[in-house]
Structures
1.
Amino acid sequence: MAGLIKREDIDEVRQRTDIKEVVDGYVTLKSAGVGSWKGLCPFHDERSPSFHVRPHMGSYHCFGCGEGGDVISFVQKMDHTSFAETVEKLAARIGFELRYEDGGTGPRREDAGKRQRLLDAHKIAAEFYRDQLLTMEAATGRAFLQERGFDRAAAEQFGVGYAPQGWDGLLNHLTGRGFLLDELKLTGMFSVSSNNAGRLYDRFRGRLMWPIRDITGDTVGFGARKLYEDDPGPKYLNTPETTLYKKSQVLYGIDLAKREIAKSRQLVVVEGYTDVMACHLAGVGTAVATCGTAFGAEHIKIARRLLSDDGTGGEVVFTFDGDAAGQKAALRAFEEDQRFNAQTYVAVGAGGADPCELRQTAGGQAVQDLISTRRPLFEFAIKASFDQFDLSTGEGQMKALRHAAPIVANIRDVSLRSVYTRELSRWLGMQFVGEDQVARAVTSAAKRAAQPAQDGQQGAQNQKNPQHSQHPQHSQDPQRRQGGQGASNEREPVEEVPQFRRPDPRDPVARMEREALEVVLQYPQLLDKSQWERFADSRFSVPAYAALHDAVRAAGTGGTDGPGAASNWVERVRQEVPEMLRGYVSELAVTPLPAKDADALVLYCRDILNRLSELRITRLKAEKLSALQRLEPAADPSLFQQLNRELMELEMERRALRSD
């Protein structure tokens, strides 16, 4: 049973993982001063590097787009994996075995080892097939690609290969690389002979091969296209279901398309491997394809994660052939439409040409034009369904209206719903069904659809424990907040949070408060006990910085046990601030400090904290002087003496700071 990863293990993974080493796999970093690195941001287009990484802090921040966080959030955003999946991936990277709460389990170390062996076998197999494509035997495969407009560079870009016609070419290659037969049985790349004592032989023979990769880029299976007439197998043959390959959970091309999908918030679903290749080569870098199955619920989960499908935009475009099978596929996709908050569209090429054929006959621009002329999927679904009704009669129009009204009623965008209500009237024809009647039918359908939902919500509300509803359990666990393993389905109440303006950088007090927070976040180990106490007693005038100051005090003192401990310190502070200020924490944690070397850094940090303490003393002195001026000495001589004594102590503290 899956469980929540223990908090201390998450901290351990964060602390032990070198964020620079991880980011280096995605971004070219160059030194930007003492302990700081910078490069071009992977989350937005830019020409000058504004993306900074501080390995000591375990944090990154882009001063251009505002993205920031720790190594876990970076990998989450880059690989579009869940929080728990990311922690497990990073733990495997450093060889750390995670523990789970409440007796739950995660991947066992031996299972993780077996999975890696399978991945290694697939990687080597993909390399083997790519090399085979260059042999004389593979001439038919190369001709197939060339006929469809794909040259050698295109084949290399997508890792296309060739499976030789023999029975054991791949088998001998992998056993020669040290893989055992029992391991190879689990890969799905081999079949077992029924009449030869269970002997293994190559599953794919004499076929063009496409590696199917998961979202992280690991090869988990293959798609094989028939090349020879004497091949008795199907036109396309894929890897069977294995521990790595689940056809309902993989999308061909997702590893190449994921960044562009996240950036443009568009996902294009095509029908085949060559269509994906054609789209990408034509400039439509958001194209993916399913692998021998319909686009279903598991694919939608992947798409929603990539699109950040929160109702604020994004679109899914399905491309289908214009024939009956294509229409059926589009209608099947429409049935899943309501799982998306993004708008869904359909693009059908003129004459039913698919993207690969379009690129061959009319060039890459034709593929782009196909996507740009997409139509809303519900429009396509409605018009396709009209084929079953005789719209030349009043009876046929009424039947079509009763069929189409619920579809229009389910359009999430209210403004679009009204537009398509009018369009529906036009599509039906005005001879027998008027626009008002169409509007009433859509409104009635919307009410019927809403009523069961309201009843269900009311019933669920009546079953809630009132005491539990009034006192929900708040958790800072990112697995619960971000839908990790074992995440609760309960919704926490929305809390009112204050709005914070970005401080004016020209304000000297705001600048000093910011600099003090930078020091405390980046080098907490340089503060001794008295400095922590003075920092805690300081008052911050800028609301945003005051909130960060409160968060630092709530997080405690910066732990510094062992390398990388500062990364957990920053994360603790980040968890104590409102969501809208977490970017500030990342920003302050990576801002380069003006120090050329370690000695200068110590002097700088001490100077900043002393200046903050001096400002605190100045404020306290002003308050006590004001109180002293309002006080009559004869009326309360003891208080008069106490204020004078406190003023003298503050002045002595100020002088001590200046002499430090």
2.
Amino acid sequence: MVAEQKEDSALLTPFDEKLHDLEIYLDTVFNNTGDPIFVKDEECRLLLVNDAFCHIFGLPRDEIIGKTLAEKVPLNERDHFLSVDRQVLKEGKEVLCEETLTIAGEQTKTILTKKNRFVDPKGNYFLVGVIHDISERKRTEEKLKLAAGVFSHSREAISITDASATIVDVNDAFTRITGFSRSEAIGQNPSFQQSGRQSAGFYQAMWKGLLKNGYWCGEVWNRRKNGEVYAMMKTISAIYDEHGTITHYIALGRDITAMKEHQEELERIAHYDILTNLPNRSLLADRLSQAMMQCQRRQQSLAVVFLDLDSFKNINDTYGHSVGDELLIAFSTRMKEALREGDSLARIGGDEFVAVLVDLGSIEECKAVLDRLLLASSQAVKVGDVILNVTASIGVTLYPQDNVDADMLMRHADQAMYRAKELGKNRYQLFNKAQDDAVKVQRASLAAIRYALDNHQFVLYYQPKVNMRTGVVVGVEALIRWQHPIEGLLSPIEFLPIIENNPMSIELGEWVIDSALTQIGQWKKMGINLSVSISVNIAAIQLQQPDFTPRLIALLDAHPDIEPHYLELEVLETSALDDVNNVSKTMDACIALGINFALDDFGTGYSSLTYLRRLPANLIKIDQSFVRDMLDDPDDLAIVEGVIALAKSFKREVIAEGVETIEHGTALLQLGCELAQGYGIAKPMVASEIPAWIEHWKPDVNWQV
């Protein structure tokens, strides 16, 4: 066989040998060409393919030759795929067509095929085709198309600049938002839109961040073509080439003006009063804190001024809230005009306003502003056809003289304002630290007394009252004590003055009456007979209550086994009885129930004779201050003699307090006073000690002469 080949080779002419070599070269070129090449017969069947063709379909040559490979084309394109081949074979015209192939049942590729007809010497038709794989190009085109669509149809303004920040393109949203056309924007630096609301430092920082990080994001205030300033949320990104060099910048911006306006409106609602447009309590607190820090740096003073309209509620009730609102608006305008530049005014609710006066060098500067505020507030205001006349009460505290925090400054100014109202309104009052401390002590004391009353810490002690001549115990006086859990037993002087003219004194007074009635009942059950009564001190404020008599009847009804004549009420002669006539009527009503009255501490007040003449008390008590010194002081002795004489003249009984010695009792008996009480007779004692004392007590023999 080898010999035959050699023989055949030997038979080839030089020309034939060249042709043979050419075929080998052509075959080599054909199979090493990067683009797939194929030849089809008149039935569109593949006759010849190169290696690149096999590769693109992922099939060996023996599975390709003799096939049309139409199955590799999507079903809906197969007829068109074969019709193109037939058209080329029939018409002989070159066709360039784009086709989609399915590779390995999954992957799709887009190919661009150049098809042409070839006729051999025998007149046979062949279809020759060259394929270009354009899948990557198509994907790139799709991306570009998508990017172009995003660029064109984005609702955000997009601008592209070159590396020198010159605009090279903008989208439709940019022209819509800015008002500048594409031709007006291209070639410009983006700075042509600047509004002037942001400093050069802002833009320097923006570019510094952009160059450092490759992007920047933030709010920018720009100006539209029509001059309107608007806010934009902007993102700028740098575009780099393969060498890391910036080639372009792309900026995306969204118009957030409406959002910023809404945000500002919310902030205004949060920090400003809707009616007067003044700062509210929240913003005032912030401004006051800042002013205090500034005050410390400058070593000056500031004033917190609390203003409250006098009788504003009457205006609302009389004319309605709409008129009241108009008054508040007018008032706030006048107050602002009365203040200095740099001062602040806020409305913190209702008819309450607070001003902060800053940079005060002296109290006189503050007083000048306060005088203007009072004058402005007292001027008449016309609302419609109504003329309104109002005034204001003003409280003031100075910082750092009042060295507390912002919240306490407000409270102190508020307290001073209430003091101004108490003093008659239409005035200002400076906060007084000593007075405030006294108020705090008063409040603490009232709270402690309230707690003591609620927790049964008060007790009654009893001091006997006797007839020194006959030796009869005519009664006892109930004396309140506070059994303090820490401080021990406290006398009335340590707590009764605190609740004077306070409603709590009424409650405590009723507790004393109720406790005394309860004690009378207990002594009665023990067989102790008090000839007269238990006397109870009663405060003027309690006696002057319009419902005093009904409340006393209710207390008596709670002790049905106790007859009213066992109760004696002692009225202090030093009490300020505003309406003696009504007090007298109240006493008459109580006397009709069987209750007795005594005038206590007689001779120490300014209305002794008036009270003696007009108040139906059947017993007069000589104050112990006169009795105690009567043996040594002729004046006190004269007073005691005078009181005893007055009692006899007015047909009243008389009893002396403060009998500390036998000599006191002897002197009183000589003056005609037989009833007495005091340490010389007995000290106040708890209820359980009274029975034994009564049983063993005897008057001094000197008193029985």
3.
Amino acid sequence: MNDLIQSQNSGTNHWFKSVLLAGMLLFAFYASTHMVAAGDTWVAMACGRHFSNHGVDTVEPFSFNSHHAGPTEEDIQKWPGWAQTLCKPFSLKTIQKWHPTGWINQNWLTHLIFYKLASWFGEDGSYNYNTLVYWKFGIYFLAVICVYATGKLLGAGDFLSAAGACFAMVIGRTFYDIRPSGYSNLLVPVFILLLALAVYKNYRWIWLIVPLIVFWANVHGGYLYAFIMLVPFVGIHLLLRLPRRWSVCLGFVGLWLVMYLMSYKFISNTNYLKIQELLGKPDSVPVLFKDKILIIWGILAVISVILTVQKSVQSPLFYAYHIGVGIIYFLSLAPRFFLAEIPSRLSPHFKEIYSHFVFSSQITFLFVAIIGCLLILALALKKERFVALSAKGIYHTVGASIVSFIAMIVFNPFHLTNLTHTFEISVSKHAESWRQVNEWKPAFDWMDKTSTKPNPVGSEEAFAVLCVLTGVAMLFWLIGHFLKPRPTTKGNRKKQRDQTPVDGFQWPKIDLAILIISLLSMYMAIRSRRFIAIAGSAAAPAVFLMLLQGWQMFSARFSWKTEGPLRPIFWPPAVLKTVRIGTLFVVLGLGTFWGMKYNAFILIPGRRMLVTTASLCE
């Protein structure tokens, strides 16, 4: 099996790798043929023309009710008190430069690129829209290679890495269009590839996220994904490098803070939706830094640090404190979620919206509390079972993250507003209003209680297959990790000697950081279907890696029980040859079929290549 699937086996034929590469490019071609026909393409062209002629500004040119450049003194007076305090040391001109208001077009560079591509390659003053089609194909040719490379780095091997990359293209196909989000669909797998390179090759690779994020922040607002995912990436590797007690201390203190912030956001959103007002109750949103529960968190954190520093404190008392306090803290926050009332005066439609919001918040809170606690204990007690970034790698990752954040603000025409605007539409209290837009609604129609019709944006069937496959792979993989032989009796001493690695095989380690990033990406897609495209690329390498590792662990355990040596079971050469030849015929068959369907065979020697939007897209 391993010389088909594992990249470490040098026996993998070069011709077979060429077939896999052709297959990946073929699936990327197929994924690019779907036309979403979103209006964003033409909006982008109009905005790009404006930026080309007038430069990047904050005055909207398309409406009589356009946004005007700011802020003015009157605007600043309406800002929250803490924001006004921060503004006092600076002049109005400085504030207008570093935090402009008005028309904030985060996709300005993509819009300019679209316009330039169409105008530069046009003839006789007309636009050449075919260049935008070429752009789309190029984006996803690069994306599929990045997904494949990530799978290879993680250890999934040639065959499964290619299969995962092809599957990712199928998942995202109905969401791929000529719009700014295409850059995020590419840059998400590039970002995850850089994280994998930093862990498995050299930690200095992480510094490439600086130019990546700077470019990303100018082409699409999805750059926030990078900063969101850097938090668990750094946090997990930091906990793995710290002493056991400090891992538990900082892990639980961080988890309690996250739980508090989730409760605060929930209350803020209910206030924004005017629920308390409908219930006849006063505004119940606590002041952030004066909230009693947050003050209690600070006291509990200090006690946790004291217990960690005091070596005389016995381990049972240390762990009992953190687990017991974790349960009490959870119970103190739970009423904020589970005692939420639904006003009877709400309309049926809005009642469904609010009910879904409450239920999803409750499930998320429970999931974070339970899984977070289990992961912290696992990271602290079983450090040797996880892939860990070196200490230097953690320092460099933190440094690269800070530099990326500063550079993202400096090298952007909207500076700080590029960040605050992203926050406003993504994770603030106003973000819930976006849930009513079709592409922001849940991935699966049965989760959307507010609509009786299928969602017209994209298709979620392939993503549903990914969700099921992920569940099966995780169960298979988790069971496999508990199968590692632990002989203790005298009769098993011979087998204990035979547990040394055979043919380079060792019991697989868990790359928890990449796995968490994959699962978080899938969760984002389940909450909002617009993220299905990036979820496929982010999760596919980890899912197919779990399938491979599950097979290795089960077969190694079986071999150990029956023969003695600890090694995975290999497929016979005849089976491997059959699979390779079968893969070749599948690639040739799909290539012929899709080529004829989309009129791709139009390159005639000696003639000009004619490609049109209609001929290459449905």
4.
Amino acid sequence: MTRPQLLSLTCLALAGSTAPAADGGYLFATFRGEGTPMTEQVYFMTSEDGLDWKALNGGEPVLVSDVGEKGVRDPFIIRSPDSPTVYLIATDLSIHLTRHDWGRAQTAGSKSIVVWESEDLVNWSEPRLVQVAPDDAGCTWAPEAFYDESRGEFMVFWASKTRGDNFAKHRIWAAHTKDFRTFGEPFVYIEKPTTVIDTTIVRDGDTYYRFTKDEKHKAITLEHSKDLMRGWRGVDDFSLGHLTGYEGPTCFRLKPDDDGKPGPWCLLLDWYAEGRGYQPYVSDDILGGQFAERTRMSFPFQPVRHGTVIPISAEEMARLGKKWGEVELGATSPQVKSNNLVVDRDAGTVEVPVLPGTDLASLDPGFEASFGMDVAPQGPQDFTQGPVRYRVGDEEFRVTVVDHHNPVLAGYFADPDIIYSEKEGKFFIYPTSDGYDGWSGTYFKTFSSPDLVNWTDEGVILDLGKDVEWADRNAWAPCIIETREGDRYRYYYYFTAAQKIGVAAADSPTGPFRDLGEPLIDFKPEGVDRGQEIDPDVFHDPESGKHYLYWGNGYLAAAELEPNMAAIKKSTLRVMTPDGTFREGIHVFHRKGFYYFLWSENDTRSPDYRVRYAISKTPLGPLEIPDDNLVIVREDGEGIYGTGHNSTIQVPGRDEWYIVYHRFTYPKGIGMGSSAGFHREVCIDRMEFDGMGRILRVKPTHAGIAAVDP
């Protein structure tokens, strides 16, 4: 277990038992904190790949303890090596219900663990309380187990304090059992100079690996041995040993590649110090000790606390789904916007958005259902005559197809900047590559379109890892401008990386772009002591012919660019934050003698992320803020939230304008909590003005716009 009121870390393992191949996926047993009596109980999640998790039982607990302290934490699952029996053990502790003095072990948690058992993962015994720790112990935390083949018994191990040293520190204790009812004499399994808790063990070949939290340094240690009981030595080159503020390790293998190569080991660490929850790290060789951060893992709820994961068969996945699952459909057809399927179980309907031009008379959505449920019919269907009836498992749905143009890009993208390329005669969108926890993407792409409706992925145009020497993280919020000297076109691409702003140049809107070798903006303007140096916007002033750069989070800065477009004229730099609503995402355009400044208000993780504007007669202000200056806001009736960080595009030669923005992914975004802030998608809607030049409020839509002929 972890310390009270802190999260924990986890590493998926077979735990030394005979287990099925993960042809069905994985089962994750966890708890959710101490907010209510029910959050300190056992929750189940499943995943097909070990990365994207779905809640069972509607996100409610599947096992509830009514013994001991009537609360459980740190659930751990292990299979019997010679029978279908599965055991689930957990800490007997309720921080919500019981007051504890953590300095006095006799009043701080029991000497026992809570045990359930099952033969099919869905029908479980009543919980039983079993003492495992010595009579003078307390704080019996985070029990786990490993099958000791040499003894033909399970070794159960946990952290406890004892009276022998005045409850000064935790050690890892252990005891042997054959049936999780009768336990042998407890003994000290791990003795260190400092307090240790949260141990997990995995086996790879003939070597055991042991991850443990060192409480003194708040760090994770890694040891290895050929013998479960002795001979443990540290892995000196463990690459995560320097991390602090992590705990609760758990480790497992991801699925093999298509060619049969074993999947990497996945170590989950709970970053409790930052409240970030599980952080995944992967390695092909545990003994080598080199773990790389994996950027993508999603959970259906937060927080997810100290638990364990086991591989499960397809039969077990189907059984769990039938007992506690909810129907989830995916679509594999490239013609379907798979992120935007709308499944309404109560109404028995499914809405399938498709790409423009899809042949609806012969469309196979390529449905795949959660928990291995069968889907029928298979193959192409005629959707031109109305809904087509499908059966998913035991349920029937009426499936309709809609030609919605929003989102305009397939997948997760955000912070879109758009231009019309005179050279190419096409539109180009330059977004942030989204879908990465903590906005941790490292590359930029571009997309082209002849008409603002049909978009082509032009691929990666700048990769921080390969193309930028001064930053390797947080590739955010780019902007671009097309310049022309004679017959030569030149493109300058301004981008955020590691909370600095860089610039790259190319002779084509699709690159290759070459970074100038150092950040353009890596400082705060004088008088600014907050915010970040992010979200650039580049603007060509049609009246003066000059170019300007704008940027900032928490503040708005602006400066004229040098003619080479690679430096600012610092003498022109000024701070021009419009008001307290300014957060980020500045965008500037010119129309009929006025300069429009649009910005985003609130946090991008908020459903109320939205756009406001001001007007000026010059590119550097002063700014005039209209009484009603909202440009676009959430549309609850349509399930559209988080509408912000925009750019705009004027159709060449016409006073016809469109706003390009991102929103939470639809329909799942609003239920994703803060994760919606990095699962966003790009949309386009019409933007209009009144006779005084004021921007009329834009209503965000799913339908989007009709094709434009530039």
